[in-house]
Amino acid sequence: MFMYNSGMALAEQQIKELEKALMEKREELEKLLASERAGLDFGDSIDSGDEESDESEAHGNYLALEQVFKARIGRIEDALHRIQEGIYGICSACGTAIPFEFLKENPESEQCLACRQKK
């Protein structure tokens, strides 16, 4: 467990702004995923081999996209949970405050830039 190091902790208004951005991004990704899912056409009609191949490729592309989107949604959910726990904006590796400007660009990040670069 880390100890919280001093630094510029996020103000309540900054946390609210980031929380709103996280919720909007989650909703956007969920809508995009639903739209992609709805766009898949696996009709019951007998298709030519080319059409079946196209459908199979589209399904494969959807599955890859779904995996990426669900991973991102999971990171967003984790960030929202950290907000509720009161630990959002604190690096999970070193305990320093993560700068607001960095979180504006990477709102689901749980580590500061220095710790992310160590990976």
From TrEMBL:
It holds the Pfam family zf-dskA_traR. One of its GO terms (molecular function) is zinc ion binding. Residues 8-35 form a coiled coil. Residues 86-118 form the Zinc finger DksA/TraR C4-type domain. Keywords: Coiled coil, Metal-binding, Zinc, Zinc-finger. It comes from the Bacteria. A zinc finger (dksA C4-type) spans 91-115. This is Zinc finger DksA/TraR C4-type domain-containing protein.
